[in-house]
Amino acid sequence: xxxxxxxxxxVEVGERRISIPGFTEEGENLANSTNAAAEHSHGGVGETAKxxxxxxxxxxxxxxxxxxxxxxxxxxxxxxWRFTPLKKLAGVLSDAPTANAGTEDEPVDYxxxxxxxxLVVSTLRDGQAPRGSVLQPADRAAVVAxxxxxxxxxxxxxxxxxxxxxxxxxITGKQAGARAxxxxxxxxxxNAKAVFVLEHRGSADFNGNVEVKLGQGADLTVISLQRWxxxxxxxxxxxxxxxxxxxxxxxxxxxxxxxxxxxxxxxxSGEGAEAEMYGLYFADSxxxxxxxxxxxxxxxxxxxxxxYKGALQGETARTxxxxxxxxxxxxxxxxxxxxxxxLVLTDGARADSVPNLEIETGLIEGAGHASSTGRFDENHxxxxxxxxxxxxxxxxxxxxxxxxxxxxxxxVPSIEESLQEDLEAELEIHGN
Amino acid sequence: MSTLEIKDxxxxxxxxxxxxxxLKGVSLTINxxxxxxxMGPNGSxxxxxxxxxAGHPRYEVTSxxxxxxxxxxxxxxxxxxxxxxxxxxxxxPVEVPGVTMxxxxxxxxxxxxxxxxxxxxxxxxxxxxxxxxxxxxxxANRNVNEGFSGGxxxxxxxxxLELFKPKFAVLDETDSGLDIDALRVVSExxxxxxxxxxxxTLLITHYTRILNYIKPDYVHVFVDGKVAxxxxxxxxxxxxxxxxxxxxxxxxxx
Lengths: 432, 254
Description:
CATH topology of chain B: Rossmann fold
Distance between the termini of chain A: 19 Å
Family (chain B): Belongs to the ABC transporter superfamily. Ycf16 family.
Helix content of chain A: 10-25%
Order of helices and strands of chain A: EEEHEEHEEEEEEEEEEEEEEHHH
Radius of gyration of chain A: 21 Å
Protein name (chain B): Fe-S cluster assembly ATPase SufC
Domain ABC transporter (chain B): 4-249
Largest sheet of chain A: 17 strands, mixed
Distance between the termini of chain B: 39 Å
Largest sheet of chain B: 6 strands, mixed
Oligomer: heterodimer
Keywords (chain B): ATP-binding, Nucleotide-binding
Organism (chain B): Nesterenkonia alkaliphila
Number of strands of chain A: 19
């Protein structure tokens, strides 16, 4: 695979560092004309108390809110929907309640780890903090899920608690085509440390929001596993707010489902934090797997890193990755990087990869992005086969090796092992 | 006793300018235990011969044959050639991200031998072979060739040569990019494989320096896709003194 170097304002960007024309160390030469849109307040992810200045096309100006009226039915021409098969997603875009809500026939079952010291499990109505303090719906799917979830599941790790074992939320769909809305609030109080695993299996039209709040010095990993059956549909918005000196890691693994569209976003509430988003996806024929990430550097001196890797096999396999990074004027000292790599294993598959980087201050440590989509590298194959390794095994080694970088980030051995097995099975499907 | 026999080999590649003939009738016979050096100026087809023996898909054999103890090598897939006992130490070893050396070596050894090596003795064997080639033990956990220096990549090629114990090895400019210490370490590895396994060796090189450490029985000079002259080790000394000029002049005149 060849790494295609992206350009920022016409200047080649290196692997890790960039220089930006017009940006001096003082940042006084910023292109004011392009960023001179009227000051206004808006309710986006990354909303801060003070009015923001950004160009009209800025990611920071994307509409967010709690009112359905603000989000008309998408037509497919909108920037945020233009890659998505809307017909297949219709089941989660309507303003509909969960099917058979409140009965035993609800289409989705939730099993939650309970009875752990330092873990508080409860529910939140709309308006009950911290629900809604972090996540503001940014598209129609998110707003209809928000509105139609009466009680949000709320998991809180209390101050200073370090949980030895991952906290699991097993989300199992029981009926293909049946609508399920969900809202989950995860909170790590100051200096708490935990791993949350959201594992999605079975079949449903699942529309699930997740909001994550990290207090000062908290260390939280959220692993969202999409291991749906082939007839499942999943839309979701996962928003996090990362506190001062906190560490946040979000990992999305999407293997199953007919359509999966996940928006994973974070912003900061202080300085000195590190936040990362990792993604792994494997699309077969007939699958549409879409991940959108938005890193909002709204406060100074924070670090972010985004890495999504995907493999595609089969004629109609389809993946989309849109990676937005916004470094606001206030976010001096930011160090940010994002990368997406796709490995196309067969003819006919299509991977879209769009990194977007907006920088409103020159006073940053670094900002870089990269994207590459390549076919299987025949040189890898030749090298391994020249050592006696049969083609089939050589291909498996290379694909597993490519995706391993993400699996190694998970840090939960049982999940890492079971994902290795799943990938093995994915590769077998196509006889690779 | 095995024999690798190359007869009247013609090889071409497809380029943007059309088909280009690289090898124009090469014949060589290498027996077990023999060391053959192939020397020649840039572009004479030395590396093409190496890649063709290994089965790289870019090179098309238009006529001639390669046989290993009478078996048609050209009919074999790339992996089958390695399993049959051929090894190519590459000029530019490929980085394979995400595949650890440990996993790679075990997988390859299993494929070549047709059975998995015994876990305990294998680990020890790998460790000892690495130590002899002065490869740091933590390379076992690193990905194949990823981030290795040029010299480290070459040592790892020879590590494989020692572990896989091929009947015949083709060393494609293994000496290029090596400092004098690394050259000695790598040469010792080749000599060990030669002595212990009675390996036949085809040593492709641009310079005579490596021949101070690995003594060839035969030297072949490649010019313009053909063997222009053959001789013993003394031919290398003559090349060291006079260079390739007299061959290039002859090729240009022809």
